[in-house]
Amino acid sequence: MNFKQFVIRNTIRNKHLYMAYFLSTLFSVMVFFTFTVFAFHPALTDGLNKNAQTGMLAAAIIIYGFAFFFVLYSMDVFIQSRKKEFGLLMIQGMSPKQLKKMVFIENLVIGFFATILGSVAGIGFSQIILWISKLLVHVNFGFYFPIQALVLSLVSFSILFLAISFFIQFRLPKLSLQELLKAGDLGKGAIKSSRLKAVLAVLLIGVGYVVALMAKGTQVVIVMIPVIFLVILGTRFLFNQLSVSVIERLKKKQAIFWKKTNMVVFSDLAFRMKDNARSFFLVAVISTVAFAAIGTLYGFQDMALKSANQVPFEFEVSGAPEEIAQTQTDFTNILTDRQVDYETGEMSAYVTSDQVNLIKESDYNQLAKIAKKPTIQTNGQGVQLVAANPIGVEEKAVKDVKVANNADLPVKQTEKTEIIPAYGTHVVVPDQTDVTGLEIQKTIVWQPKNASYDELLAIGKLEEDNFSLTAKTYMKQSIINEFAPILLVGIFIGIVFFVSAGSFLYFRLYSDMDVDVEKFKMIYKMGLTKKELKKMIYQQVGILFFTPIIVSFIHGAVALTAMYHLFNTGMQLIGWQVLGVFILIQIVYYLIARIFYFKKVYRLVQA
Q1: pLDDT tier at 160, thresholds 50, 70, 90
Q2: For 398-416, what is each residue's pLDDT tens digit?
Q3: Do 172 and 198 belong together in one domain?
């Protein structure tokens, strides 16, 4: 057996040792491959504007670049956790040069299988995503065999793993043989923390939050860079200084430290926080970017769809009577030919010299009944309409309006309405009001009954060149289609960032496993039960997984709130839903990780 065969067989036979690294790299390949499936999809490339194409290309570069640094970091953690193994190999006669060569070959083997299996998995995963896209957002991307995506992924990640296999050799632990063999036994010394930096962590994050939440409108853009700088620096101090100070203070409180198994959990927690500070910092920042990117994109789409949903009627046409007469006839014929059952109504708005739109009571109430909205009683006086769902346009209050012959009609009350758009000033007047000589703007509406989504979409598309006609379903689908490529970019970048963040935590967990096993072995011999061991491990894994995620959740909530302030609106429900989904994913990740970690530790403790 030659050296290469030894390395390859050792890698394959010790697959449990390499599985975490292998699965993470496989997932990176799969996500990149799936994204390129969309980037090269004919439905997106054909007719996609240059800015969108540039955005897709930039996103692919970001994902690939991040995959490079993620795999490099993962391999680095993996290498650093194998110090004792390297020491044993060197005792058996392996030279430093052969050790570097072994790591090089190992990484090539793992990279080869991860690239092949990741691409294969990506083919199936991408088709599922295409199907879900059609099901949920009615965007028909269609199925195709992604030859370009397959070739690009294979070539890109072959180059990536070749480069990492070369660079990782220079990251091998530069320690003596004795230090390598005792890597898990060396003490960590006394832990130190800076009180000044701990206070600065609170101040920097607090000031950043206040500035971000106080900014309104365009101020959000102005303060964005300073706030990001303050919060990132504060987060750095939070993990490597403030967290250590808090843990040391908790250890001094006997009521907490001596409670049940807390002594074991807290014994080296400060060292763990210090050691994992960089990982926690990266996870918090990366997760915040994922939260903010996806939450903002979904928020923009949600606001656009809410605006479209304010339109009360499925089909509506407005304009001067003579201009829309032909449209009315043609569209009515379309509905009749398609055998669509519908209600229809008309409303005339009479424009005064003061640019006030007068609407007769019977006309307004006819449309209100079709839309199943409240009617209005004028009682002989004018009633000003105010949008029930304002979108930032303030209505000018009027006390009276001039009708025919410059006569004044008093306006004594206001009513909220979902029938009239939130533009201009509208007043409902009694039917007997004299409107002779005023300019007329006519509105005709059609409200289909029991028509399917696809049928409404098809009808709306027939009139897409008729700018005077509003087709609600078609308008909503157009918004979805417009946001679909951007959302896909944001979602995939978010997925890459968030899963990579989880993988950082996963690697840190396993890099400290030897220390955990030795610690729990000693306590287990003293009578520690399986139930107590499970509780301690679950607590330890929970702290590792949720400390950075809780911080990133708060960062993300503040970032999304500030982003919505750009449009003078509060935090939208869709933003909380995005944050909730990510937290749910992290909980599932934690539940799976803690089970596997406990089983492995418990097996080694009993050995």
Answers
A1: confident
A2: 778 777 777 778 888 778 8
A3: no
Q: Which amino acid is at 414?
A: T
Q: Is residue 378 packed enough to be buried (19+ CB in 10 Å), middle (13-18) or exposed (0-12)?
A: buried
Kindly report, residue by residue over 581-601, the tens digit of the pLDDT: 878 888 888 888 888 888 888
* Rounded CA separation 538/529 (Å): 14
Tokens 């060197």 locate to 90
Mean pLDDT across 326-344: 85
Please indicate, yes or no, whether residues 134 and 4 belong to a single structural domain of this protein: yes
3-state DSSP assignment of residue 176? coil
Provide the pLDDT for residue 203.
93
Q: How far apart are CA 552 and CA 546, in angstroms?
A: 10
Q: Can you spell out the DSSP letters for 28-65?
A: HHHHHHHHHHHHT-HHHHTT--HHHHHHHHHHHHHHHH
Q: Which two tokens stand for residue 8?
A: 């390859």
- pLDDT band for position 204 (cuts 50, 70, 90): very high
C-alpha triplet 93, 87, 510: angle, nearest 5°: 140
Least confident of 145-154, 293-302, 466-475, 498-507: 498-507
Assess whether 175 and 63 both reside in one domain.
yes
Q: Is 481 found in the same domain as 412?
A: no
DSSP per residue, 21-35: HHHHHHHHHHHHHHH
Q: Are residues 504 and 489 in the same domain?
A: yes
pLDDT tens-digit readout, 560-582:
888 877 766 666 677 788 788 87
Single out the residue of 72, 158, 164, 69 nearest to residue 115, CA to CA: 158
Tokens of 335: 């509905």
Distance CA 414, CA 602 (A): 71
d(CA 230, CA 207): 8
Question: How many distinct structural domains can be found in the chain?
Answer: 3
Specify whether 574 is located in the same domain as 606: yes
Tens digit of each residue's pLDDT (9 = 90 or more) over 112-135:
888 888 888 888 877 776 676 666
* Coil, strand or helix at 339: coil
Residues sharing a CB contact under 8 Å with residue 457, sequence separation 6 or more, in sequence order: 138, 473, 474, 477
Boundaries of domain holding 569? 189-305+474-607
- Cβ atoms of 346 and 415 within 8 Å: the answer is no
Sequential DSSP letters for 64-103:
HHHHHHHHHHHHHHHHHTTHHHHHHHHHTT--HHHHHHHH
Whether residue 177 sits in one domain with residue 225: no
Residue with tokens 């072959």: 158
**164 near 107, Cβ under 8 Å?**
yes
H-state helical runs in 138-216: 147-167, 177-181, 195-214
Q: Average of pLDDT values for 374-378?
A: 86
- Mean local confidence (pLDDT), 346-375: 86
Residues 330 and 222: their CA atoms lie apart, in Å, by 51
CA distances from residue 426 to 17, 388, 415, 446 in whole angstroms, order as listed: 72, 13, 11, 21
Give the model's pLDDT for residue 187: 47
* CA neighbor of 109 nearest in space, from 7, 246, 261: 7
Give Dmax over CA atoms of the chain in angstroms: 109
Lowest mean pLDDT among 21-30, 98-107, 419-428, 501-510: 501-510
- For residue 170, give the nearest of 105, 97, 241 by alpha carbon: 97
